Amino acid sequence: MLSGLYAITDPQLIPGDALLPAVTAALRGGARVIQYRDKSHDVARRRTQAAALVELCRHHDALLIVNDDVELAAEVGASGVHLGRDDADLHAARTRLGTTAIIGMSCYNQLTRAQAAADAGANYVAFGRFFPSLTKPDALAAEPDLLRAARRALALPLVAIGGITPDNGGPLIEAGADMLAVIHGVFGQPDIEAAARRFADLFPP
Question: Regarding beta strands 124-127 and 4-8, do their DSSP bridges make them parallel or antiparallel, or are they unpaired?
Fold first, then answer.
């Protein structure tokens, strides 16, 4: 199931009550994984939204991954958590969430970090940014050759992120990406379902 469009929410693009309709549209368009990403400190709202997204993703046979927050992922029964450089330790997350949880790691442009994550039991690794990003304009740049090297070295799913569009995503899949992680390219578009479908159509049936 770790393949296809990996759509990441952004409270600036889809605030408040717009979240569930927007994610529903992305799922209808073919998103296979949704990451709930909200850095705010409104604990009650984040818990309510994450719990609703878990049920929505289950209804669409998709996965709900929580960004950074291991405790929130555990509380709402999410499919797993995505961790960055400054987030919880992978081993601690595995202990809290259990053996069946999906744990992904941001590896930026570093194959050695990805290899360490794989050795520690990560379920997927994410590389990028591959193109200029509206969300993280200062993120480290990665090249498609990194995906090719990771494909040779690692036996787990690879995610590409950063400025990806339906027009530039195809070569990343050809280079080895199993998933394309997208924020603005889905949730910043006037027709979210159509935007998601354009990404979903890049992947083999």
Answer: unpaired
